[in-house]
Predict the 3D structure of the following.
Amino acid sequence: MTVTSNAEPARRRRLALLSGERWATPITVLGLVAVVQIASMIAPPYIMPSPLTILETLYGVLTTETLDVVATLVRLLIALACSLVIGTLLGVIMAMVSPVRPYLRALIVIDTGIPAVSWILVAVFWFKNPEHRIFFILLVILVPFYALNILDGIRAMPKDWVEMYESFRPSRWQVFRYLIYPHIVPYILMTTKSVFGYATRMIIFAELIGAAVGAGARMGMAQATFHMDAVLAWTVLLVAFTLVAQYSVELLERRMLKWRPEAELR
């Protein structure tokens, strides 16, 4: 038994190494750098700067435009955290309070059908403060992702679990704490990983339209002054942040769900 338990982690490490998951991102990044380098040798610098120029501009962004970087990250994290809380509450309410479920679900589905550009224009009319505009835009776009995924997660709960737990005659709070909450944690983490990239794109778009400080505002200024190296430098920075954020959520997922066995397909 000891030999098997020791051999299993080693076998998993070999499978992960052979599958290329560990090296997929670095190899892809090197391939993109090579493509950019080749393109920079053909196209003029204002169309495609070299990777070295982009790296130098990125260093300048990190050293001289720190306020814009921090502003974008703080806006994104606050809006994402609020969307997580509100969306999760709406999903739980829809699942546990059946009379309001059809109306809340219809309202959220209508929200998902409204284009992001429409919400941006509405926010410009409704709010004077740029911070309020950006927060509102991200909130109305991200909340439906959490609400619908949490609702689907609770409805996918095995019926046997519900019937067994109801036999103990628990209160609604006990049902949420001991049955629903442990079940929806994977759905919350999965949704967070899924929306991180989308939320980053939306906040850049919102800052580009209605903010004077932030990555989107700086990218708009770089586009207006034909500084392609600055546009790509900001893009690299945002992609790096998204990858780090998703990796952090994956680490949190492994820690919180370490009790759950991982299925392997052969």
User: Anything to note?
Assistant: The mean pLDDT is 80.
